[in-house]
Amino acid sequence: MDLDAFFVAVECKRNPKLKGKPLIVGGSSRRGVVAACSYEARYFGVHSAMPMYLALQLCPDATVISGDMEAYSIHSHLVTEIIEHKAPLFEKTSIDEFYIDATGLDRFFGAFKWAKELRHSIIKESGLPISMALSVNKLVSKVATGEFKPNAEQQIAKGNEKDFLAPLSIEKIPMIGRQTATFLYDMGVRTVATLHDMPLKFLYSAFGKNGISLWNKAHAIDDSPIIPFREQKSISTESTFDTDTIDVKKLKSILIAMVEKVAFQLREQKKLTSCVTVKIRYSNFDTETKQVHVAYTSSDHVLLRIIQELFDKLYNRRMLIRLVGVRLSGLVHGNQQINLFDDTEESINLYEAVDYIKHRHGAEKLMRAVTLDVNKRVKMEMNMFKGRVVKNLTN
Fold first, then answer.
1. What number of other Cβ atoms are within 10 A of residue 352's Cβ?
2. Strands across the sheet containing 2-3
């Protein structure tokens, strides 16, 4: 099961006026990329991972939304709960994709009938569109879901897997990237049928162990099991700058905003972190990280101190920085433990009040004063970029 244009669907659910219009979710700066787009935008050639400036050239009338991962996470969790309640065994491979084992259900009332009922339950209870394809293994189910989206409800009967895959482009097969596809195209291989007819020894000599995997996929062979769903073990966020910077004050303000964001997510999920990581990427694309294990916490002021110390130790080359990021890992369920020496009644009450306001009115409605200039600057850069794009398109 795969949620159709998930980010876009969530935005349309929140604002029904967006339905049926070209919509792009992603960063609006020149370095921004398309995270997701509506099927109306795809008609103009827009696709995920495309540079935003190119997407707006292809579809200048598109509405651009920066996205809200908090909202997407909440809706993903809602769908997960529905599946968890109804499915005997499932695997969640991403925020919007699920594999479900329906083995044995044919003995009762039919696996395909059950899968269709589950799909309609998800649509009804979550308000989100989702596609489904049933087959004997993960490979064929995934390809079929993508092939018949949106609003897919398909069954590839046992024994018909090879016939279904044969006419498809090799790029439809999972894990065949651009480089492998180009290599196969140069060999004259464009469809799965042609790949299917190639000898295993030849593919092994050309691709090594990956050649065996290619041969298996071309023959619709996939024995990978359903891995039971596991809880999220880390929360992270990062920011790529429109212009590389050496402004330490700006960098620290951005890190503070990041800490506020991920710490609030922790407390919302009633989780604590035991490992904190800071990441920076220089203008020459060298990437460095530094992490430290800490006592379980979800408090802003504790994480802020740790992250600022990590940044001071990490940033010692005095080069322009392209990206900074924060990751909290080693997550466990639990509420913040009160420190008898550091915490006060006022600070405890403050956290409760802050979280209540953010939960009720949105995380962006309350922030530290030091991050105000950062948020204003980001919005100003986004507006300036949109203005440049509109001007160029007009000219």
1. 11
2. 90-94, 97-100, 2-3, 130-134, 153-155
| Structural domains for the chain | 1-156 (3.40.1170.60), 163-218 (1.10.150.20), 234-384 (3.30.1490.100)
- What is the distance between the alpha carbons of residues 127 and 14, in angstroms, rounded to a whole number? 10
Q: Are 191 and 170 in contact (CB under 8 A)?
A: yes
Distance in angstroms (rounded) separating the CA atoms of residues 243 and 381? 10
Token pair for 312: 């001071």
Q: In b/e form, how buried is each residue of 237-254, taking b as 16+ CB within 10 angstroms?
A: bebebbeeeeeeebbbbb
pLDDT tens figures, 182-209: 999 999 999 999 999 999 999 999 888 8
- The mean pLDDT value for 373-389 works out to 46
Query: What pairing do the DSSP bridges indicate for beta strands 23-26 and 63-65?
Result: parallel
Instruction: Write the CA distances from 61 to 22, 226, 247, 352, integer angstroms.
Output: 7, 42, 35, 42
CA-nearest of 254, 247, 259, 266 to 373 is: 254
Give, as one character, the DSSP assignment of residue 29: S
Cα–Cα distances (Å) from 269 to 31, 175, 188, in that order, read 31, 33, 51
Tell me, what's the pLDDT at 386?
41
Lowest mean pLDDT among 85-99, 145-159, 222-236: 222-236
Collapsing DSSP to helix, strand or coil, 380 comes out as: helix
Distance from C-alpha of 37 to C-alpha of 65, rounded to nearest angstrom:
10
Q: How far apart are CA 172 and CA 192, in angstroms?
A: 9
- Predicted confidence band of residue 351 (pLDDT cuts 50, 70, 90): low
Neighbours of 226 (CB within 10 A): 16
Task: Say which of 70, 81, 91, 97 is annotated catalytic.
Answer: 97
pTM over 0.70: no
Cα four-point dihedral sign 141, 144, 146, 148: negative
**Active site annotation includes 97:** yes
323-349 per-residue burial string, b: 16 or more CB within 10 A, e: under 16: bbbbbbbebeeeebeeeeeebeeeeee
Give the H/E segment covering residue 327: strand 321-329
